[in-house]
Design a protein that fits this description.
Rossmann fold, 19 helices, 14 strands, 47% helix, Response regulator, phosphoprotein, AAA_lid_NorR, two-component regulatory system, sequence-specific DNA binding
Amino acid sequence: MRSKILIVDDEKLMRVSLEAQLTKEGFCVKTLKSAGEALKYMRGEEFDIVVSDLRLPGLDGIEFLKEIKNISLETIVIIMTAYGTVESAVTAMKNGAFDYICKPFSTDELIMRMERSLNYKEATSEVARLRCEIQELYGQNNIIGKSKPMMKILDTIQIIAARETTVLIQGESGTGKELIAGAIHYNSSRKDGPFIKLSCAALNKEILESELFGHEKGAFTGAIRTKKGKFELSDGGSIFLDDVDDIPIEMQVKLLRVLQEREYERVGGEDTTSVNVRLICATKVDLANLVKQEKFREDLYYRMNVVTINLPSLRERIDDIPLLVNFFIRKYSERLQITRPDISQDTLDLLMEYGWPGNVRELENVVEHALVFASNNKITVQCLPESLKKSEGVSGKIQMDLEEKEKVDFQEEVTEFEKKLIKWAFKKADGNQVHMAEILGMPRTTLRNKMIKLNLSC
């Protein structure tokens, strides 16, 4: 789409000349002779750029500029004048002009300035869009759950987000520790600053030190240039260190110094760098136990453990599973550009009975998998991964998948269900028929007769 340009100048020759040349270059151009006419026109039509003379009849260029910004802050304004002074340029810039060009000028010079302004507008719009997306991603609305443990965590985030205190998040893998850390940052006064993330898992001392504090050129083999560390990159914002339980013991003292003194040196450097950063840590194990085992420094633990958030596993918040399932169905239906399907009650029951060793992350992957295989706008048990359907993590009810059937043979279904029950009992009792009979609550002779009748040796 061509950029729309409004030219405002009381000199007719200038208007005609610019309109002809800019139209030839592919711009959509409108010209007017006064600020009053232009303001009336702009209230009914949007322009990407307004190129205005500084001296206009009636309302001058600076006042016109202020009025344009009242109508649309996003409209780019370039001021042109034959009376180029530093003072007028500074005044124009202070009042929102993007650029300033002195008459006489070539059309090429004006086009170059317009293209530069359009590129800048596009870049800033993209940054704003990405910032909005990120803040939406980490917003509290994305923390799904109405169970008591999750409501308590949401209340805690609300309280501590505005504080500068260090936070320790504890929870199993896949429980959403990064999401909680992001919610704390993006609801704090540091939300416009950087949010830098680093997993400390499986990084040796040398690599981790360089990642955290940066290094100078030549500090070690392969250090071909100076590199900023995560702390330096997060200055003015927050740093999220995941898997802090994996930090080597010899590195922990350097991290402690940053927390205490707010300063550090790059690897191979001598200059001390000060940093203004909020630390949010996460661990998949109980750090207190590591302290007892002398695998984690006690003084560092207490520095990190100012406020602790203990994230429950998905097994501990079963009531949240339907909410999470619906959230992921909506999310991936939009991403896959498909109609949002329903989920059968049998399938939902199975998901609520599963053990979820991978927690919320595993549930998200299962829902995405199910959407790929959904048919007739319905997610059934058959859409789930085989590993989940066969897992011992599913206990309690024996599943009967009748969703896609319109009619059944009652006796046939009962017989099939009895087979499932006996096979389940066989597995639970390791083939011991006495134990099987106890599990099924029937006499052993009855069990044996049923196995013969159903032709089952299991």
